[in-house]
Amino acid sequence: MSVKEKDKEYIAATYARFPIEITGGKGSLAFDNNGKTYIDMGSGIAVNTFGFCDDEWINAVTKQLSKFQHTSNLYYSEPDTVLAEMLCNRTGFKKVFFSNSGAEANECAIKAARKYAASKKRSAYSTVITLKNSFHGRTITTLAATGQEIFHKDFQPLTKGFDYVEANNIEDLKEKLQSNKCAAFMFECIQGEGGVIPLEREFLSAAAEIAEKNDILLIADEIQTGNGRSGSLYSYMNYGITPDIVTTAKGLSGGLPLGATLFGEKTADVLGVGSHGSTFGGNPVCCAAAVNVLSRIDDELLGGVRRKSEYIVKSLTGAKGVKSVSGMGLMLGIETERDVSEVINRCLDNGVLVIKAKNKVRLLPALNIPDDLLKTAVEVIKKACL
Ligand SMILES: *Cc1c(COP(=O)(O)O)cnc(C)c1O
Predict the structure, then answer these.
(1) d(CA 142, ligand 1 centre) in Å
(2) Is the pTM value of this prediction over 0.90?
(3) For 35-71, how does the pLDDT look when each residue is reduced to its tens digit (9 = 90+)?
(4) Ligand 1 atom closest to Cα of 106?
(5) What digits encode the pLDDT tens for the residues 262-307?
(6) Ligand 1: which residue has its CA nearest to atom 15?
(7) Three-state SS for 199?
(8) Which ligand 1 atom sits nearest the alpha carbon of residue 221?
(9) Atom of ligand 1 nearest to the CA of 101
(10) From ligand 1's centre to the CA of 250, what distance in Å?
(11) Pocket residues for ligand 1 (CB within 6 Å)?
(12) CB 33 within 8 A of CB 3
């Protein structure tokens, strides 16, 4: 049986896969089983921060791997402490909880917000307001947080205590924050799965003001936007607001599963002994990988992200067949005149991997993609839109 046939036979059919089999990669190049090479403009959905098999990253991973691969959280170990210190120093946040995925990082944030509200107000203050068109994960609770009917319909009843606001509608936000007993407002600064749509600055400023006044926590879901992707270390930094809780995952570890929930001043001590946990969370190999990734997301790299972003936006805005370009940093969405799936397939045929977000072509290249590969990829995408 071929890999494709075996996959069809034995893997639960939850994924609509592209018709290629990846067998390797180096940097921003991916190789398939037929010896074809692709420029990877998706990085495994914003995960491979420095592309495939980056030498420095492999060194960090294998060095830790040869010491110990896992201890459980019953014992102290170095890698998670180094990473937590680094995250706190770079953000001003006070404490970190490590998990294994984005959904888990959000679950942890929601638990902490409810516990905080119960201790400060009453347990009735449990509602988490999120945005319509948002995406926060696939567990029953993070599905409830996700403001899209299409994800809800086959899985009722979902976790109670969520209500949804139209993005950038300050009146709607005020209304929902007043009509519910709220613990938190959770948002992506740039909606990713929802179509690569940045929130407006005035909307987030207003949200921060109302939240501050009513002791409602701000939770920034930086799972996709975080770790340099937006051109800043975390995308909230582009908005002049300070969330109470930040969640991240995808690009944090550069290709290994790791989630992190960052707690600010108010929430630093909310989760005490026994209130939350994870067997694999903060795995030393994943943390060593993340230490390497974070230590390389410096001003120079972030400047490069912004410069590459400008190049893509300039090249594609107003190009024939392109209706609009949205997003920030190396998280961009292209609205095309041609059917989006057709554009994506044309890119694939011509050796460029891009992905989809709603009706848009979504670009999430490695943060260090070389300029010449980026240029070639942009030319292929341009042609595919014609
Ligand atoms: C991908 C994503 C998640 C879910 O992350 P998983 O690791 O798949 O659980 C949650 N929120 C946002 C914004 C995401 O992009």
Answers:
(1) 9
(2) yes
(3) 999 999 999 999 999 999 999 999 999 999 999 999 9
(4) 10
(5) 999 999 999 999 999 999 999 999 999 999 999 999 999 999 999 9
(6) 224
(7) coil
(8) 13
(9) 7
(10) 7
(11) 101-103, 106, 135-137, 188, 192-193, 221, 223-224, 249-250
(12) yes
User: How far apart (Å, rounded) are the C-alpha atoms in residues 145 and 99?
Assistant: 18
Cα 280 to Cα 292: distance, rounded to the nearest angstrom: 20
Can you spell out the DSSP letters for 325-374?
EEEETTEEEEEESS-HHHHHHHHHHTTEE-EEETTEEEE---TT--HHHH
List Cβ neighbours of 303 (8 Å cut-off, separation of 6 or more). none
Ligand 1, atom 6, lies closest to the CA of 102
Per-residue model confidence (pLDDT) at position 373: 98
Ligand 1 atom closest to Cα of residue 139: 9
- C-alpha 195 to ligand 1 mean position (Å): 14
What's the pLDDT tens digit per position in 246-267? 999 999 999 999 999 999 999 9
Confidence of residue 105 (pLDDT cuts 50, 70, 90): very high
Residue 324's contacts (CB-CB under 8 Å, 6 or more residues apart) are 317, 334, 335
- Best mutation site among 14, 131, 136 for ligand 1, i.e. most ligand atoms within 8 A of its Cβ? 136
CB under 8 Å, gap of 24 or more: what pairs does 315-319 form?
Answer: 315/378, 315/382, 316/378, 316/381, 316/382, 316/385, 319/382, 319/385
Q: Which of 187, 188, 193 to mutate to test the pocket of ligand 1 (most atoms within 8 A of CB)?
A: 193
Distance CA 42, CA 64 (A): 27
Q: What is the mean pLDDT of residues 215-235?
A: 98
